[in-house]
Amino acid sequence: MTAIDAGPAVTVRARSRRKRQFAPLWMLLPAAAVLLPLFVYPIYQLGLLSVLDFRQAQVSGGQPTRFIGFDNYAELMSAPRFWSVLWATVVFAAALVVVTLAVGAALAVLLTKISRWAAIALSLAAMAAWAAPAMTGSTVWMFLFDTNLGLVNRVLGWEGHNWTYERFSAFALVGAVVVWHSFPFVMVTLYAGIKALPEQVLEAAQLDGAGPWRSFWSITVPMLRPVIAIVVIQSIIWDFKIFTQIYVMTNGGGIAGQNLTLNVYAYQQAFASSEYGLGSAIGVVMMLILLAVTLVYLRMLRRSGEPL
Amino acid sequence: MTRRIVPNTIALLVALVVAFPIYWMVLSALKPAGEIQSATPVPWTLHPTLDSFQRVLRVNDFGRYFVNSLIVALAVVALSGLVAFLAAVALTRFRFRFRSTLLVLFLIAQMVPIEALTIPLFFLVRDLGALNTLFSLILVHFAFTLPLAVWMLRGFVAAIPDEIEEAAQLDGASRWQILWRILFPLVAPGLAATGVFSFITAWNDFLFARTFIISATENQTLPMALLVFFKPDENDWGGIMAASVLMTVPVLIFFLLVQRRLVSGLAGAVKD
């Protein structure tokens, strides 16, 4: 071995030794110590509870817990309420995703076409809505739409109109708050994506005679596909799990449960009706739906060629 | 310049609509009670007063809930930042078996509907004897904020050139020194960004506070305490708005301070 290549050889050896010494194991240990008992174990427990007869009597120890297989699921499937809640959850989430994306995308495009001061004003307003806690967002909108003292009813001259009385208008009101909270994420992410596009491509399209509409659909959208995929999936996941707004604004799921979503339904079954097994089964259904969405997301990531 | 008049006007109108609820919240918190009840509400007040804030803080002991929320959120930020930093370094600086698998698991963990886990976690916290304590809230949010924090920090750690560590190593720095004296300060901007997300998650939580803090009202946090002002007969809107302002302002300040890092951190987390 000559003196010349001794240098790199030593470095490489020192490096590989360092890698072995710095065994990453102990650095991951704290994370594992938190996530295994507080994340993985509860997921297992949720599955277990969903196949048990687990109610107030079992919680207090008055009666032994009993394995009942898929009885909880069978009970759910045969209850019309479950199907109507599932349907409402899917439609509500889908509507929220579509509206959030439309508003966020339109404003992202608008941001590229306005003066700096206007962009700053719009960004600041969006940041404020984004940062506002779900709880205070709900209270402010409830005040704005209050039956008697609300600004909206006063301006419209609709004193006495209760926005949460009807199923559709209650969902719409909750939906408005959710969109208000969540469009900024879509706007900011898409805007960053648009800014990162090579300008030459759009200029070339312009030279070839493509109008703004055409170049948006034929160039901007296809090139932004990875970013769009991510905001779509994030929105689906986010909108499927809405809890605080519905719970607070419709007072636990609306009149006679008309505004329940899976989330709130599971919670009510468990903690209001003490049907912990049944509530867990609803939780499992929700988990499976979101797992399916996640797998689609992962496939998209793989396809877009991002190395992990 | 003139062709921008239309888009500028639209943008400004949208900004006004989007910001209006926040403005109305602050305004209503400052309005005297009579103006809130008034049949003709006006978007300003000539007699701003801190009455609502005083009522909220003195009578309803809101300061205590504020401090509770702060304790929970700051503990979660510190704990999850520290643990996520270690995990992020392990996942970016080392090649080992199951590394990719672990990364995918952290990604999947972000998608888990934590709301569904309320039921098993309730029994877990009960068996630990931790119901009605702030500790229970710190514990669950520590776990829930960790996956996103690891995922986001990973990008920040990867952005630090290897050479810096190698140079330090040649200078005789130990692995502890490299980790805490060199990598940690360099990742600080990333920690700020992830910290905001952890803070907001813990600060905004309504569900777990509602479930775990049953009888010990003195250990309640802000989102639940806000509900106190909702009365069956007549809501105290001035109080609700003042309490909402107190709850929103810290997050707003936090958010605006690290806004740029937040967006780049998020873009990094989202891009991967």
TrEMBL record, chain A:
Superkingdom of the source species: Bacteria
Domain ABC transmembrane type-1 intervals: 86-297
Compartments where located: Cell membrane
Pfam families under this entry? BPD_transp_1
Main localization (coarse): membrane
Task: Name a GO CC annotation attached to this entry.
Answer: plasma membrane
Q: What name does the UniProt record give this protein?
A: N,N'-diacetylchitobiose transport system permease protein
Give the originating organism: Catenuloplanes indicus
UniProtKB/TrEMBL annotation, chain B:
* A single GO BP: transmembrane transport
Q: Which residues cross the membrane?
A: 62-90, 102-123, 135-157, 178-200, 237-258
Matches recorded under InterPro entries: BP-dep_ABC_trans_perm, MetI-like, MetI-like_sf
Q: Topology in the membrane? A: Multi-pass membrane protein
Gene3D superfamilies, sorted: MetI-like (1.10.3720.10)
Q: Which UniProt keywords apply?
A: Cell membrane, Membrane, Transmembrane, Transmembrane helix, Transport
Say which domain of life the source belongs to. Answer: Bacteria
Q: Is Transmembrane helix there in the keyword field?
A: yes
Q: Where in the cell is it found?
A: Cell membrane
Q: Name one GO cellular component term.
A: plasma membrane
Residue ranges occupied by any ABC transmembrane type-1 domain in the UniProt entry: 66-258
Task: Quote the Pfam families the UniProt record gives.
Answer: BPD_transp_1
What is stated as this protein's family in its record?
A: Belongs to the binding-protein-dependent transport system permease family.
* UniProt xrefs under PANTHER family: INNER MEMBRANE ABC TRANSPORTER PERMEASE PROTEIN YCJP, MALTOSE TRANSPORT SYSTEM PERMEASE-RELATED
- What is the protein's given name? N,N'-diacetylchitobiose transport system permease protein
